[in-house]
Amino acid sequence: MDNCITRIEFNLGPDNETISGQVEFCTDGLQVIASGKEKWIPMEGIREFRCDVGVGSVTLEVCREDGDHLICRGTMDYLAVFSAASKRMNRFLDGAVPTEEWKQYKKALCPKCHRPYLPDSEICPRCTKKGGYLRRLWKMAKSSRGYIYLSVLIFIAVAALNLVLPYLNRVLVDDYIKAERLPEASQYILAVLMILLVTFMVRLLGIARSFAQVRAGTKLIVVLRQTLFQKIESLSLSKVSKRTAGELMNRVTQDSNQLQDFFTSDVGGLIEQILTLVSLGVILFVYDWRLALMVLLPAPLVMLSHRLMWRYLGPRYRKQWWRGNRLYETLYDIFSGIRVVKAFGMEKKEMDRYDTVNLRETDVRIQNETYFAVISPITNFLMGVGEFFLLYYVGNQILDGAMTLGAMQQFSAYVAMIYGPLRWLSFMPRRLARTMTSLVRVFDVLDEQEDVADREDAVAQTIVGNIQLDNVSFGYEDAKDVLRKVNLQINPGEMIGIVGRSGAGKSTLINLVMRMYDPDDGTIRIDGTDLRDIAQQSLRSQIGAVLQETFLFTGTLLQNICYSKPDASYDEVIIAAKLAGVHSFAVKLPDGYNTLVGERGHTLSGGERQRVAIARALLHNPKILILDEATASLDTETEKDIQDALQKLIAGRTTIAIAHRLSTLRNASRLVVLDHGRVAEVGTHDELLAREGLYYELVMAQRQMSKMPGELETTEQLA
Amino acid sequence: MKETSQEKEPVRKLSDVAEIRYLHRGNTEIFLKNGFPGARIQCRQEDGSETVEEHNRIWLHRAFPFDLLKEYISVQNKDQEEIGLIRELADFDEDAQGILCGALEHKYYTPKIAKIVSLKEAHGYSFWQVESDAGKLQFTLQDTFRSLLRVGEDKVFVFDNYGNRYVIESLKALDRRSLRRIELYL
Predict the structure, then answer these.
(1) Class of the B113-183 domain?
(2) Pairing relation of β-strands A624-628 and A654-658?
(3) Distance CA A420, CA A422 (A)
(4) Residue A174 forms part of a structural domain
(5) What whole-number distance in Å separates Cα of residue A638 and Cα of residue A604?
(6) What percent of chain B has pLDDT over 90?
(7) Cβ neighbours around A232 below 10 Å, total
(8) Do A79 and B163 touch (CB under 8 A)?
(9) Which residues of A sit within 8 Å Cβ distance of B?
């Protein structure tokens, strides 16, 4: 249809049956087609589209005058599709003009294997080709390629020398030890020296190989970690917070280690083993094809038995690892909460809990050891079967005088050598799988779209402090829009208080002003320039933020205050600290400003931490100041002190402040009341009270609360 | 020493303090509007008079979704505020139970796995093909061990990488092959 805005598919029917349906969203209504039936929902009267996320399913609905109506339902894989459609349609209701981009709808399933893509991506974990990733990694290894080539060359040399050794041994036995006439001593010594030299060379090359590997590895891992780290830092907050800190750390450290191992030892090893295998095969065939067949025929069996053994044992060992992990977690949990355990007298219960987990781990360990004890000798025996054939054949040959003792020794050595690569190669799929997992995880981060990237022509700009929001709409990646059509004009030097219930979009609004995200619709301008045209570095260097959760880095008090201005003088630090109320407690500490704080340092109280954050913001001397519940977690008295400190900070700067405790905003020039993502009211405290709207309700609700002891002061301030 | 004579306040029961509004057939009428559940709740005011609170649409939320499927259902309005608690669905007549059950089954869509046809692991993911009451399904788990939740000895919930849920009602009832496939991860 020409007037089609967007369309989606869905997969659940009214009775939870699996169906294949489609909805076409047109300018005049929605066409729902499922199980051969069609339904038309006219656009007239629709107030809102809603994506209702259940626990195992998601529903797309419309809200009309006469209540809510169902459009369609789907399993959770359809969440992204439904959510995008509802956001687009709400924007359409708000008057936005549909674009061509809206028409393109994402498929939730991989067209090849019909499995869902990984969430928020179009990567099918099963069908994505991994070869491309390897090529890209190889490109990244540019600086270490020389060492990688070198180590591969050494691998080849070692393989060749290893082949020479049995030959030299044979010469020693046949030509000298079992020689028909007595050899000259000098020749004999020469042969021994040759063996010595080759052995020495192998060791020497081994050292050189380790050297090359370490160099290649270190260079690669440095590049890889740098790239990953830079990428993660450049991603927007929403993309970063999709993954936990632990997961990101894992990708930067563990996964990059795995890739380093692969390039530095597995690739070389693979070449060495293949070369050894091929050259041994050729030597054996050239000498005696029957002998070669006898040795090589059991080879597939050997590889197969080895693969089977690990296919069987591998998951069992993983289970053991998992149970061990649980054991560790339980122990950590109990020890961290030991005060609670003792306070409730739960020692016995915790002991039982630990015993259960411990026994479960032991059970699987015993089981695995037993399996291994039984299986391993059998496979080892199978691997050695070829050697028995060989012994029989070679024995006959020697008895017949067709083969010398030295030749037999040489071939026994080759046969023993040929099984090494076979065993090694049978492990290769496992190593490759592990590497591929890491590759996918690393490139999953590297391929993440930078959604808040700097434009090429973005400029550094000195900010005066005029902020303007025009029809700004925004929603996170989940179901609904958090802000809808927000219009707001903030003048330089003005203090704006943002109030509203939880989830009204207050924090989202300031996140947008700080450009942690870009609006989906509309524009934000600072001094008339679109936020997207200002270089992020320049923008953020002129915005200061004091947030509810104050994070102090591990370091000294001084370092934490200086975080925003590393080159600040001692005088500047003390002035900022004095204004923020840090100085008074800092000078009482034995180590003063050099006191170690943060994770492993001196524990500061909530109020003290908050003051450090304010000192940090003061020192930064920002043009625009953001206060997000800066004093919410403090007691009334501390709050008052900090409010006074903040007042000094605010003077003359454009300030946007969020506070639940409305008294905190008593000095605001204007208050903006947000309700369900829209600006409901704007005005001064008195104007809004007189209007008796939403703000009035909030004030009254807090008055009720404030009747509780200790909060009386707030009521007085509000009245 | 003289003991201070202080009148002791009796210790109040937690249930007296908590003020939970239980909904049942005596105070609540459940109805269906445009296919969604709604509720009419009779409220007794402080002065003894009765008023009726009408909710055109209610949302149901299981308080113990892994243990109790038909008990302790929180009834919420569109702002996700609780307007009452259903102790058990049997507190309502059959029609109302039908409406509530239907809404719960919609929200907590959880196919029951009858057979695990194939379970393969690759690149850190596990790929499942199962037969369920919703037909043949295939899904992917990221970190298999953490995606399975054993409830009691016999019941297992499976969470795929999208947040879909599946349940194996009874491990004992599984065929030997299926059990062997999943056993490694339990």
Answers:
(1) mainly beta
(2) parallel
(3) 5
(4) yes
(5) 14
(6) 61
(7) 18
(8) yes
(9) 12, 14, 16-18, 54-57, 59, 66-70, 73, 75-77, 79, 114-116, 118-119, 125-126, 130, 315-316, 318-319, 322, 433, 436-437, 440-441
Q: Comparing C-alpha atoms, which of A615, A607, A593, A604 is closest to residue A641? A: A607
SS3 B132: strand
Residue contact B165–A56, C-beta within 8 A: yes
CB contact under 8 A, B57 and A68: yes
- The last residue of one of the domains, among A427, A453, A485, is A427
List of chain A residues with pLDDT < 50: 709-719
**CATH at A78:** 2.30.29.30
Set of chain B residues whose Cβ sits within 8 Å of the Cβ of A315: 121, 184
Disruptive mutation site among B59, B77, B119, B123 for chain A (greatest number of A CBs within 10 Å): B123
B67 backbone dihedrals φ, ψ, rounded to 5°:
-100, -50
| Residue A423 belongs to some domain of the structure | yes
Task: Report how far residue A340's alpha carbon sits from residue A347's, in angstroms, rounded to the nearest whole number.
Answer: 10
Q: What is the pLDDT of residues B2-22, one digit of tens each?
A: 445 455 666 777 767 777 889
Q: Do B162 and A75 touch (CB under 8 A)?
A: yes
Give me the CATH number covering residue A303: 1.20.1560.10
- Alpha-helical runs (H) found in A2-63: none
- Determine, for residues B134 and A77 on separate chains, whether the beta-carbon distance falls below 8 Å: no
Identify the weakest region by mean pLDDT among A289-298, A379-388, B45-54, B132-141. A379-388
Q: What is the pLDDT of residue A30?
A: 92
**Placement of tokens 């390039």 in the chain:** A263
Q: Is residue A613 part of a domain?
A: no
Residue of A nearest to B133 (CA): A17
What single letter denotes the amino acid at residue B19?
Answer: E
Which residues does residue A53 pair with via DSSP β-bridges, in sequence order?
A: A58
Quote ipTM for the complex.
0.89
**Pair (A191, A267) in one structural domain:** yes
Let me know whether A398 and A309 are in one domain.
yes
Range of the domain at A64: 4-103
Q: Do B109 and A12 touch (CB under 8 A)?
A: yes
A277 and A390 part of one domain: yes
| DSSP secondary structure code for residue B67 in this structure | T
Residues in chain B with CB shorter than 8 Å from the CB of A73 are: 106
Total structural domains within chain A: 2
- Dig out the tokens for A246 from the structure: 């632990």
Main-chain phi, psi angles of B40, to 5 degrees: -115, 115
Q: Is residue A54 part of a domain?
A: yes
A496 Cβ neighbours under 8 A, 6+ residues apart: A488, A490, A655, A656, A657, A668, A669, A670, A671, A672
Q: Does the distance separating the beta carbons of A18 and B135 come in below 8 Å? A: yes
- Tell me which chain A residues have a C-beta less than 8 angstroms from the C-beta of B126: none
Residue type, A495: M
* A125 contact residues in B (CB cutoff 8 A): 122-123, 125, 127, 140
Answer yes or no: are the C-beta atoms of A166 and A414 closer than 8 Å: yes
Backbone φ and ψ for A643, nearest 5 degrees, come out as -60, -40
The DSSP code for A519 is -
- Nearest alpha-carbon partner for A113 in B45, B47, B122: B122
**CA distance linking residue A697 with residue A689, whole number of Å:** 9
Task: Report the C-alpha gap between A301 and A289 in whole angstroms.
Answer: 19
A527-552 burial: b if 16+ Cβ within 10 Å, else e: eebebbebebeebbbbbbbbbbebeb
pTM: 0.69
Helix (H) and strand (E) counts in chain B: 3, 12
Return the structure tokens found at A614.
């304010």
